[in-house]
Amino acid sequence: QLQLAESGGGSVQPGGSLRLSCVVSGSTLDYYAIGWFRQAPGKEREGVSCVRGSGGSIVYADSVKGRFTISRDNAKNTVYLQMNNLKPEDTAAYFCAGSRGYCSRIENEYVYWGQGTQVTVSS
């Protein structure tokens, strides 16, 4: 069974950067797609990005393209989400999740979830 643990959230001003980490245990990354999701208060959970394999399959939501970068370090069994030029609308709880299927931003395709880390963008 896969376990995931997020870290790296915090409070930043608009235009700032944060790097989220998702440490995966219980299996290697090779067999899973790892997705990043976010949920703002009163809103549905949104798929932000996903990576599968050695970065050969990567997906981004249109709202974060050009600002967020997903990457993985197989040696550390960790997936990162580098977030640059953050905007107030990026404020949300961010979750990483694992799926044995293809890279996807669809929440229901993920079985394993972390507890989340809060990102707040405010001046």
What would the keywords be for this entry?
123 residues, mainly beta, seven-stranded mixed β-sheet, four-stranded antiparallel β-sheet, 11 strands, globular
Number of helices: 0
What overall form do the CA principal axes indicate? globular
Sheet of most strands:
7 strands, mixed
* Backbone CA Rg: 13 Å
Query: What order do the SSEs take from the amino end to the carboxyl end, as H and E?
Result: EEEEEEEEEEE
Number of strands: 11
Arithmetic mean of pLDDT = 95
What is the percent of helical residues?
under 10%
Give the arrangement of secondary structure elements.
Blueprint: E1 3-7, E2 10-12, E3 18-25, E4 33-39, E5 46-52, E6 57-60, E7 68-73, E8 78-83, E9 92-99, E10 112-113, E11 117-121
Describe the 3D structure:
Strands 2, 4, 5, 6, 9, 10 and 11 form a 7-stranded mixed β-sheet that branches. A 4-stranded antiparallel β-sheet has the order 1-3-8-7, with no helix packed on it. With 123 residues, it is mainly beta. The chain contains no helices and 11 strands. Helix content is 0%, strand content 50%.
